Amino acid sequence: MLLSTLCVILAAARQAWTQSSTVDAYIASQSPLAKADLLANIGPSGSKSMGAKSGIVVASPSNVNPDYLYTWTRDSAVVFQVIVDQFSLGIDTSTRGEIDNYVASQVIIQQVSNPSGTITTGGLGEPKFNIDETAFTAAWGRPQRDGPALRSTALITWANFLLTEGNTSYVTNTLWPLIQNDLNYVAQNWNQSTFDLWEEVDSSSFFTTALQHRSLRQGVQLANALDQTSVVSSWTTQAGNLLCFLQSYWNTAGYITANTGGGRSGKDANTVLASIHTFDAAAGCDALTFQPCSDVALSNLLTYVNSFRSIYPINSGLANNVAAATGRYPEDSYMGGNPWYLTTLAVSEQLYDSLIVWNQQKSLNVTSLSLPFFQLFDSSVTVGTYASTSATFTTLTSAIKTFADGFVEIVAEFTPSSGSLSEQYSKSDGSQLSAADLTWSYAATLTSFDARAGVVPASWGASGLTSSCSISTGGGGGGGSSGTVSVTFNVDATTVFGENIYICGSVDALQNWDPDTALILSAANYPIWSITVDLPANTEVQYKYIRKFGSSLTWESDPNDVINTPSGGSFIENDTWR
Ligand SMILES: *[C@@H]1O[C@H](CO)[C@@H](O)[C@H](O)[C@H]1NC(C)=O
Ligand SMILES: *[C@@H]1O[C@H](CO)[C@@H](O)[C@H](O)[C@H]1NC(C)=O
Ligand SMILES: *[C@@H]1O[C@H](CO)[C@@H](O)[C@H](O)[C@H]1NC(C)=O
Ligand SMILES: *[C@@H]1O[C@H](CO)[C@@H](O)[C@H](O)[C@H]1NC(C)=O
To answer: pLDDT band at residue 148, thresholds of 50, 70 and 90?
Structure first.
């Protein structure tokens, strides 16, 4: 009995050692390739940047099926967050030129008028631009309000480094105006609907809310450091509202619902990415900010990973405590619905981040919520606190390290010898699919490897936050605005008999952009069509008119119409069909 137990332990240890050395070897060869491949996708001189302007990140050099030869604000910021983190932590200080180019490119991009608006009317929420820094004007899922949050976070990280160099003038004169534009946008618009990071669901999205919250907290710290205190009160208030709203995504089934809309299970890599992109080791395992090692984030991770076990053939037969290929969300059908490199790596990174904190705090907590997660690795574990001197701590952390390494090993198994990483790998045989050389795949590789090596990104102020909102009671209260305004929309539109004019827009009262349930206007004063609706006060509301005739539906041309509602009373808006 004793001997057989010992044999099992030894076998497990040998397996862990084998896997760990496989992962070590993969990291040694893949790290430099991933960094080089990432830089190759940045203009003007990246070898695969396809003529992109200076500092512009192409999402992928693939220009057909799918065409990703554009620059997304989100993807670019994620890429530059890695570059800036590695620079400021001394891991790679060869990239100052790229960072300067990125800053200069965003000075231009922020000012480009686009279908979401101008810099003052919502244009900062535009998801993507052409790589020559002009507006992309075709139909798209817009706006995507995570972009300004992620970009300002990358720029603030850079600003904080430059302040340690004593370079206050550049921070104040060049970076601060960019950061302020983005964060004013976040503060003013966070409570409006947004397309999620996958550009599919128009509602509220956990990733967006979490990153918006982080960006405002960091912005307040920088504002104080630069003595730019006029923004502090508004940004602090909205950060509090965001933190409150963040709690409302938790659901009692033990995971985070990624989007408020979309009609899916809500199990989504969105939430895992949010946790790793808001990691702050100084906050420990704080549940309010969904830190990687918090019980809420671990319970969520388990639910997310398990949702792919039965739907991908390459996961078949794997036990629940063994790593599995994961994708965006189980209902995904894009390009056939396959695992993605960046989502599989995100799982490993959340676990590596957790190990950093447990080792730093020299203990880990098992709560009733995280118990099923920890029981994967030790079926006898019970709720409690385990000091690093305990056998349970050793058993759990070593098994979790092995589990985490397993996700990297899956990525390693499906990486060709060139080191190139596409967006997806096949759920049947692991072969590469969709866009080649996805820049974010390389960024995800580097951040996972860094977390495994114990690299701790700079704190952003997640520690010690409190909120009157809590998970058990859900969101509610403390919204961005209160009260409503009665708004009459008049639009001058000539129609043919049988044709009607409708309206929909960015708030609940305007059906959250759903054309199928858009509100019909009255033609009592034809050719002026009218409707009066109650809209939230003090709010930027975007909308468009639609023509419907039988089963045909025609949107007004871009850009969206915008009104900023007053604080109360009533308001009349006079438009002409475009
Ligand atoms: C401040 O940083 C900027 C951006 O890298 C650089 O161009 C400038 O030379 C720096 N100034 C000083 C005084 O170091
Ligand atoms: C706006 O905030 C309120 C209060 O937190 C919340 O109930 C509502 O869902 C939010 N709406 C959006 C679109 O963020
Ligand atoms: C464990 O829980 C205690 C009490 O709630 C807390 O003080 C401590 O920070 C927690 N440690 C970790 C690693 O979560
Ligand atoms: C729209 O026209 C009405 C008069 O018909 C006017 O009272 C109102 O101020 C106008 N609205 C705007 C926003 O100019």
So the answer is: very high
